[in-house]
Structure prediction request, 158 residues.
Amino acid sequence: MAGAGGVWHLERDLRRIPQGVGSRGVKRGVKMNTIRVLKPKRDGQVFKMGNAQSIKVLYPEMGAKNITLNYGEHPPGAEFRQHVHEKSEDVIICISGSGVIRSGDVRTPFEAGDIIYVPAGIVHGTINTGSEPLVMFSCQAPPDLGLYTGEKDRDQAR
Prediction:
């Protein structure tokens, strides 16, 4: 099923997917044993935290066992609500825009090109304080499934 050089390219190889595999080429519970090229807006699944909407791109249901990757494109004023990953470290990469990362009452500004590291057990959330969309990728290891179920949105006070 992989394309040239063993790389699986979703658009090119979609017609070659065996029956039983989802329309996006993602079969739940299948070990990810091939390289995949994904586009967040096309291949991901939307989830919401606070008043910010994000997209999960790599996640356990598609076979990623040890890591999750999310994409966020948040409008001015949007807040990805504060939450805690009890056992997961979090890395946030700001692609464009600017904002603050909150940890309780502490707000630390960041901008395009910055990388934010959040240790496991630390409360955190982001707010777009700029005048343009805040575009970020975030990665958690190991995966924290509560992020996608709404559990983190409910449990953490503002």
User: Anything to note?
Assistant: The chain has two domains: 1-37, 40-155.
